[in-house]
Amino acid sequence: MLSRSPFQRRLNLLYRSPQQLQQEVEDNAELPAELAAWLGRLRLLNGVPINYLVPDEGMLPPESIRFFYLDPNWAAALLDGAYSIGRNLTISGDTNSMALDRASAPMTNKHRDLAAAAMRPGLLGQEEPVIDFNTVSGFILRSSLVQNYPGMGVNPYPLGGTPDNPDPTKVVLLNILRMEQLGPNSDTLICLIEGDAYRIDIHEAPEALHYGLDSYKDENGQVTSSKTIFPFTKTGNPQHPSVTMDMQNPQFLNLDTYFRTSDPRTLNMSALAALIGSKQTPALASIDAAEMGFEMTEGVGMVSFYNKQN
Amino acid sequence: MPDNSNNPQLNELVSFIQHDLPGLEDGQYQLQVSQEVKDEAGNVVSDGTLSVNYKFAVTGDRFSLAQPAQTIYSVFPADLASGKYDAVLPHVVFSKPTFPWTRSPLKAGNVTPLPAPGQDTDAEVPTWLTVLLLDEDDVANYIGQFPEFSLTPWVGRVSDLFLTSVLPISTLQDNYSYFYEVTNNDKPLTTYLDPGQQMSDSLQMLDIPVPLFQKIAPTTDDLKLMAHVRRVSLINKPTMQGISDQGEPVGSFSIVFGNRVPASNKKNYAFLVSLEALQDFLPPAQNQQPSGFNPDQTKMLRIAVLNSWSFFTTGDSAGFVAQLNALNQAQPPVNHEVNTDLSLVTNLRLPPRTGALPQVANALEMGYVPLNHNLRSGTQTGNTFIPDKTVSWYRGPLLPYKLNKPALELPIASPDQVLVFDPTTGMLDTSYAAAWTLGRQVALQDTGFSTQLYNWKKGLELAVLNSAELQLLTEHFANVFHAAPRAVPPMALSADPSRKRNNNKRQKGNFLRNTLLSLHTQKR
Questions:
Q1: B3 occurs within a structural domain
Q2: Does B402 sit within 8 Å of A196, measured CB to CB?
Q3: What is the residue extent of each domain of chain A?
Q4: What is the pLDDT of residues A223-240, one digit of tens each?
Q5: Are the Cβ atoms of B402 and A270 closer than 8 angstroms?
Q6: At residue B334, does pLDDT exceed 60?
Q7: Looking at the partner chain, which of B324, B410, B417 has a beta carbon nearest the beta carbon of A76?
């Protein structure tokens, strides 16, 4: 009384009922974490060769920056291609494996997107934010800057949420989903941002800021050099004081005699430290390496780029 | 430069720290463990003292960097950069915060012991590294007296750091180097090397005239000021291997400066060199007489070069901001204002040539590029198949404008399904077909992923099969088998047997099925 054909009919019925099939999958099966992570990486275009991203070099010549929006269809096609492993390829598209993929897609996409959202926060030990992948924008930077200033900082802001907004509570910093060099020693940096980035601030890495003088001139051994510094005050825990610069009270340092007589380009560091110390209020006998670094370092340079497509 | 003082993201971004001393300096150590037992009165009751000696070594870079790419984070000015670098000091940033203090420029007897682990010290500790900056003028000034002086570091061996009178294979002759005090070989010379170090290890070295070195080298006191640590937020930085992928939002870097400003309008050569134990060669502090040892001013000093690069002090303003402002071939802004010229072409697209057909110009504006396309059809000539060729549009995932509406019907049965024909140009749009094929290829390439995905899907399929079978059996035998519940609960469908959820349901289902199956067998 129970034969193969009613079973086949029942199975077909199940496969032809998308809701029922989807219900079964969603209630009972979960995408394993490794698969979700793999698809999450692909969701952020990891593993996509550069010539697929930028098909013509003329789109991204050397020393250029370009804004973009992520094409949701392209990403969906890419991810479906990866997810198609084990699917029967036919023209009809009406196979059981297609039906099963269709039914499991909402669940797997959810896990995949969660994994993608957790990637960058995981690397930085941060809590993962809820990411909306509907609008993903970003920029691609091709420049020797990428190799020479590896730690450059990027702050993306949406329209109306830039630091120009007179109301500081309206300033919104968008989430960076992925930002990295496209391969070791590559001169190209890709940055994917959640939402619609309108302004991108790129600033110098504070760890790489250099010591600079305001001027230096050597005419036949006669050195004229100067630097303007701002005195600092230390507050709080003496072990880990927080230091603030007194921007209202610039101190002009004449450094003409702070170079060695034997070599007029070589700075007398200890004497310079004593000079910087003497300009503090109250005056300090000398300063340590950290304070020296603080006073001698040039400010963070920053350039804002605007996405004119907005 | 824009005023960033009000930008909350840029404030409190960096902490300057005096130093980050390693727990132990590089070198050999001996650990002595001893035990003696005392009674209540404090008298030793054990026969003698039990003691054991252990030897260990802290190894670290000495004359060369084992992993330059992982050790050196960046240099300034960048290698081969050119610009107005006349009033800056060159530096090297290290991704390891303790690196500038793993050795000492002081002679062995003068080194202050490091504070005990966990203890902090405000004492100033000189760094063993410095950046020497030289140029062709220095060579010109000394080449007469020192014909071998050159700015090109040469590759030698550790053995070349010993006096030739002590080690005949050395090329040092009677010049100075790190082991200048080793004048007889009573002890095996390898005792002067670090564990693991070989005489044959190669290194880069520079022979520099002693008088020149003493003019430009920092004093011991200067060295205390010429390195520090910076702790910075990594939140808005690119993902860098080994630096900003460690699960920490803050990173520590160390930085070592030079003390000589570059020569103007020249090529400058920067050398990161080791000053380990070269205290006696460093110039005396200002207004102080040299103490004791007075190096022979007619000799050269051979120093190990851990890194070297060069830059030019010619041209216009240089550096990070200037280079950013010059992106997209923009004219540098006036007065460091926001550069409006950058908006010329800021989106990812191929600029159309003037006079291009409107259809072509439109497609380029939308980010498409025309690419050669080999079709599936073609002609077979003998053993060779020659595909038909056409030109098709392709566009990557990075669009020059926002595309709001997802338009693809998923899943895609085959790439042909998403090949789009554009009737206005008579061309195919291969973008999504290419994307789908690429996705499938990268998945297949990673066999770990594709196998796991395939197996997981097989499990799903099997579970659906089981579910259908269960439904059928339940319906047929519900009346026969009274123990079966009337309302059949949704059957467990599990692709992953290790899962805990719905365990009870699955057991119930299995129990029911097994009972029904046994009934079925009996009936037949």
A1: no
A2: yes
A3: 215-296
A4: 999 999 988 877 777 666
A5: no
A6: no
A7: B410
